[in-house]
Hints:
By secondary structure, chain A is mainly α. Chain A has helices at residues 4-22, 28-53, 61-79, 83-107, 112-132, 134-137, 151-154, 161-184, 187-197, 199-204, 209-235, 249-259, 266-280, 285-302, 307-317, 320-325, and strands at 143-144, 237-238. Chain B has eleven helices and two strands.
Amino acid sequence: xxxxxxxxxxxxxxxxxxxxxxxxxxxxxxxxxxxxxxxxxxxxxxxxxxxxxxxxxxxxxxxxxxxxxxxxxxxxxxxxxxxxxxxxxxxxxxxxxxxxxxxxxxxxxxxxxxxxxxxxxxxxxxxxxxxxxxxxxxxxxxxxxxxxxxxxxxxxxxxxxxxxxxxxxxxxxxxxxxxxxxxxxxxxxxxxxxxxxxxxxxxxxxxxxxxxxxxxxxxxxxxxxxxxxxxxxxxxxxxxxxxxxxxxxxxxxxxxxxxxxxxxxxxxxxxxxxxxxxxxxxxxxxxxxxxxxxxxxxxxxxxxxxxxxxxxxxxxxxxxxxxxxxxxxxxxxxxx
Amino acid sequence: xxxxxxxxxxxxxxxxxxxxxxxxxxxxxxxxxxxxxxxxxxxxxxxxxxxxxxxxxxxxxxxxxxxxxxxxxxxxxxxxxxxxxxxxxxxxxxxxxxxxxxxxxxxxxxxxxxxxxxxxxxxxxxxxxxxxxxxxxxxxxxxxxxxxxxxxxxxxxxxxxxxxxxxxxxxxxxxxxxxxxxxxxxxxxxxxxxxxxxxxxxxxxxxxxxxxxxxxxxxxxxxxxxxxxxxxxxxxxxxxxxxxxxxxxxxxxxxxxxxxxxxxxxxxxxxxxxxxxxxxxxxxxxx
Lengths: 336, 287
């Protein structure tokens, strides 16, 4: 197991270095970009796990994040407790939704296209439900939300709300990656791979395909539900617009494909590239959707391998890896 | 009181039927292409909106009826261009791969086209023509609803004749049932795919022009139209041409009554609920 942590160290290092390098008091623009990168990286890693490794294309990430966010905000308000506690409740409920969907999908043996349409319908109906329950959710305008912060830290010199939020999410990203690494390097990863490549063969040797699909579904939706409220923390209110299909699902699909399916660093690289691109094009909102639309088409038609495998291949070609290996005792070439 | 309620129900039924027939046409647009080429065309709604926008543009210089025909033809032309360029790349892959690639490619096209349209068209659009309401037994029935019912019945009946009487129509149904078998019968599947894709776009564009008689829409509404079309197609059994018409009419009437009595949010949720229930209970249709 020890070798797994070598892959997390560079990520931890980069995450730790970002606030001192880029965050400045009173300058929240850059901070927001980096926070969004980490948020989307977590969502994309979740999609990578459930879509990349178990072929269950869940197109309701936005709705699951909304379930997490609204549960967190509303139970904190009703019970008068800190959102840090209700956060867990929100994530569990989101995970419950994921278990229900993946259970039905696995037992009914729904194909990937049926799962995608089913979850797409769920995405739109959940957002519509949030819109309609105006008395509870505040409808389209939403609810004010704040509280996922750590007051003693914010009050320290050098620390701002943004830095605390960034480090909180950074720790969650590392946790997510650690879970991902653990799953991939254990019997779960082998089972996922076997089910993905040939489900019938997997079942014939006694593998409980339903169980593994539900596990992947739960881990992914739990993580999505857990980070959902942080979108609200960033903007200061929970509103259905944040969690729309176009704002979440389309972006993380592009991020996953840009970065590389079934790789650990892929979702991180993809999230960073697409968020940067998104910010660069902020002034040209319409051109942004033209570009993302074309990007989606071109990526899926011509570049389905992603950046990380592409770079990997070139590193292999130039033999960089083998030469670098001597420098890193105990590390093995690639997680692929 | 009772008479009033009956009159209201009657008026709603007419509105529901007109909406239902539009749903049926949109659903048919999805069903044809999915049944024939295995592509779930998530860009369908954009073509519907493009047709409405073209009518709005063209009525500045020509009469409405001519504008409508031109708009439908032009939208069909755009369909040919996209089919020959982008979708041909999708057809290169097979099976599940093609299904996924089709979803992402048409989703991307939808987002890109919507972005391009919103550069120029902001706000709400409808077909600029006034059709007076008519009074039947004290109920005011929207003239546009009557026009929609009549014209969409004509179009759907023409489709029925096409699929049951003509060689091309029968060939289309052969491919939907068994692609390999159709090839053995000497049917050129590639040409038929192009033809049916364009046909589906023309149907969606006609539905759009008729939709624009009764309702206003905006560019962002295109994806909602797509989703509605997909739902109708799924409830109708995805590859059944008759099923999609029945499902469209049924869902149209259902949503009209629900939105009149319980509000539009509930009716939208009911629409999605119908799709979810169908997918969970009878997923065989789409696999």
